[in-house]
Structures are given as C-alpha cells and as structure tokens.
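2024-03-11 09:14:02 DEBUG pipeline.ingest accepted 1 chain
2024-03-11 09:14:02 DEBUG pipeline.ingest length=231
2024-03-11 09:14:03 DEBUG pipeline.predict start
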Amino acid sequence: MAKVKSKTKIKDDNNEMANIKELGIDNVPEEDDERIFVLPIIGQVEGHMALPPETKTTKYEHVIPELVSIERSNKVEGVLIILNTVGGDVEAGLAIAEMIRSLSKTTVSLVIGGGHSIGVPLATAADYSFISPSATMIVHPIRMNGLVVGVPQTFDYFNKMQERIIEFITRTSQIDKETLRRLMLQSEELLNDMGTILIGKQAVNYGLINEVGGIKEALSKLDQLISQNHK
C-alpha cells in the first residue's frame, strides 16, 4: 500500500527545495551542524539599488539580519564565510564586513573563485582567512556607477571612501597601507583600469590572506579556534 505524505511533510519538503533554489542551503537537521553557520556571499553584493533579476546577487538586507541572529544565537559557535564575489556596492559590502568583524563568534573566511573589489575586506573581516589555490583577488580603487558630478566635494567623498576601505583592510590583515595603495594603483595588469590580480598564494605572500586551503582546512581551523576560545 502506497504511503501518503502528510501536509506538514510536504510543506517541509517544499521549504527545503525553496531554500536550495534561493539560498543554496538544505536545512540538514543535524545538531552537530548547528554550532557552525555557513554564510555564503556569492555574486555581486547588492546595496540600496536593486540589480537586474538575471544578476546573481547577495542582498545586504538578507545578510545583516542573519548576522544579528548569529550573534544572538546560543547554539552557533563559529561562522564559515564562503566568498565568490565580483564585488558590488561599496557601502553595503563595508557594512557587512564591519558586522562580521564585530561578531563575538569565531569566524573563518574562504575565498573560492574570486574575492574581488569589496570582496577583499569581506575576506579579511574574519578572524582567519583562506584562499583556494586557483582563486583570485582583485585589488583596485573604488569606482562609482552613474552620473558623477565633477566638483571637489565629489573627489573628497571618493578619497574618504577609499581611505575607509584601506583602513579596514590594513586593520584586519597583515598588509601595510603603502603596499596596498601600490597594488591598487598599478596600471599594467588590468585592461583600461588600475589594480592588481592576486592568485592564491600571492594573496598570502602580500599578507591579505592568512593561508592557502579549502573546505577541509577552513573547517579544521574554525574548530581549532572555537576550542581555543572555550579554554
């Protein structure tokens, strides 16, 4: 005789499929997993302006409540941040990075694919950072889309925003300000633009990222740091 699923079971299955489709998570109901929260930041960081629907985005209005819930949770002990982003809204990205940095929970970041532009401070915001061997990080000056008024106040705004990013990155990594500025202003690597492409180990050598590794290494480090914090 065929078994008939209950309405509750069907609803749970539908919610799980929606989560997989929209957020890339599967709600695995294992208690051991509750101590580690996986925060993916994928695609372009979307701020106050909505991007086209065909653009893969991470919306800051989704991430910020998640971070507040993580901080308030008694079960979550550590956060694994998975980064594969081309950058995006500077204000939104920096706001997320500051919130990650302010968490009392242990945090480890892993750059896979790419951590470009505002993805750099998002990677360095964690307590410890990893980059996969083939992943890239692009360091460049900030850009502004749309109409820009060519007045001294606009230049001053750009300069202050740039300094905020430089200050955050140097505060949360091992790179110094002079080296970071030099990497941002290089003109040999990017076509019609300034900046530097760092691949895997290069990001570690410059002090942006702590170590080359993958999921295994990132989770192992997260467990280690959690254990140290509990002593």
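2024-03-11 09:14:41 DEBUG pipeline.report The CA atoms of residues 46 and 52 lie 10 Å apart.
2024-03-11 09:14:41 DEBUG pipeline.predict end
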